[in-house]
Amino acid sequence: MAFLWPDLLWLLISLPALVGAYLLLLRRKKRAALAYASLSMVREAMGARPTVRRHLPPLLFLLGLMLMIAATARPVAVITLPSQHETVILAMDISGSMRANDIEPSRMAAAQAAARAFVSEQPRHTRIGVVTFAGTAAVAQAPTQNREDILAAIDRFQLQRATAIGSGILVSLKAIFPDADFDLRGANPRRDPAADSQRAAPLDPLRQPEKPGVQPVAPGSYPSAAIILLTDGQSNVGPNPIEAARMASERGVRVFTVGFGTAEGEILRFEGWSMRVRLDEETLKSIADLTRGEYYYAGSASDLKKVYQTLNSRLVLETRETEITALFCAAAAVMVLCSAVLSILWFNRIL
Description:
Elements: E1 2-3, H1 14-34, H2 39-46, H3 52-72, E2 75-82, E3 87-93, H4 107-121, E4 127-133, E5 137-144, H5 147-155, H6 165-176, H7 193-197, E6 225-231, H8 241-250, E7 254-260, E8 266-270, E9 273-277, H9 281-291, E10 295-298, H10 301-316, E11 317-323, H11 325-347
Parallel strand pairs: 3-4, 3-6, 6-7, 7-10
Antiparallel strand pairs: 1-2, 2-11, 4-5, 8-9
C-alpha cells in the first residue's frame, strides 16, 4: 500500500499527545477523589477499579482518528475489482494460413470456436466488435451488445491473402474512436528512401495547417475499451504494427495479443499449393508491452480455448492500483460510531 499525499501522515504524531492527555485526565480524576474525607466517599467518587471496558471506547475513538488521518493522505493499493471495459474489439487474422488443418478441423474453425465461447461469457453490458484483417482490415461487426450479430459476424469470415497486423490495430482503434483520425504517414516499414527523396516539397504550412495532434495519455490508462488481436503469422503488408501499437498506447488502449501457430515456422500445404508460415512472437510481445497488455501463446485448439478463458477473467475482473480513501473513511466512521455507542451503553455518556 502507498499514499498519494504521504506528507499528511505527519499528523499521526498528534495521536501520542492525545493518549498523554487521556492519561493526564485519569490522573486528575484520581487526585480529585482523594480530596474527599471519607474512604467511602473516595470509593464512590473514584468508582469501580478501571477495567478494559472502561478504556475500550477511547481506544476505538483513537483508532478512528488514526484512520481519518490516513484517509487524508489518499491511500492506494493493488486490488481486484470488476472491470470497467465497455467495449472489447476482437481483431481476427483471416489470412490464408488460417485455412491449415494442422489443428482439427482447421486453424480458422478453432479460432472461431474460441471467439464464440469468449463472446458468450462476456457480461451482457459489454459491447463487442469484430475486426478482420488479412491484406487489409475491415470492421466485420461494429461494437454492439447484440450477441447474435456478433456470432453471425464471426461465422462469416472469408479467408484472404497476406497479413496486415498494423491495419488490424488501426481499424480496431477506429471502431473504438469513430470520430478520430489516424495518420498513417511513416507507418509503413517498406518505404523506399530513394522514392521519398524524389517527392515534392511539402506545401506552405500557411496554406495547409496541420491538424491538432492527439494529447498522449499514459499507456493502458483508458479503462473503457481493449483490443484482443489473434494472428498465426507475421505482418508482411500494410502499416508497421509497432507504429500502430504506439497509436493505441498514446490513447491508453491496451492490446492483448494471441499468437496461434509455431514460432519456428512451418510449411503448410493445402489445395495443391504450399506456403511457409512463421509466428512473429517478438512483434506480438512488443505490441502488448507498448500498450500495457499481455501476450499469450496457443499451440492447439485447447490452448486457444484456455487463452480466451483467461482473457475473459482478465477483462471481467481486473487487478490494478486503486485509491481506497473511501474504505479508510468508512472504517473510521465505524470505529467512532462504535466508540460512542459503547460509551453510552456502559457509562451513559459519550467518552
